[in-house]
Amino acid sequence: MRRQCDAKLRSCPRRATGHRPFRPAGPLRLGGSGGAPRGPGADLDDLSAKLRAENGALLGGISDEELRRGVRVGKKNIEIKRQHRLGVFERDLLLFVAEDARARNSGGHLREPYARGKITEVDLPCTHTNRVQPDMLGRVWAAIAAWLQA
Hints:
The chain is mainly alpha-helical. It has helices spanning 2-11, 42-59, 64-83, 99-103, 134-149, and strands spanning 93-98, 119-124. The longest helix has 20 residues, at 64-83.
């Protein structure tokens, strides 16, 4: 049976996309070093367990399922970042800068290579993570409304 499958794979032409046909390099092992094959979510479980072991006290009351979801989102974000190629935004840009970012000299000047339009900065008297607090969101919406009318 193995020889028949190998012969079929060798005779399979390249697709129009230029990809080579799949040829298995050897037996597929899921879940690391030997043992029984594990399900597709095993790596998420392993990463979640490692994260909880290393940071248990910091995670507080986060359930195992919430932690697993967070790990999955983190892995997807890493993959998106690896695949992303920076472009240039062709319009005007409204940028909200928190106090802690301003203290690190982070602002519109860092975005100039990536924006062709005018960059308008709005300073927020908060930390980066507190920008979503209700009082900051009120300032954000007011700034957006004023910017859109200008």
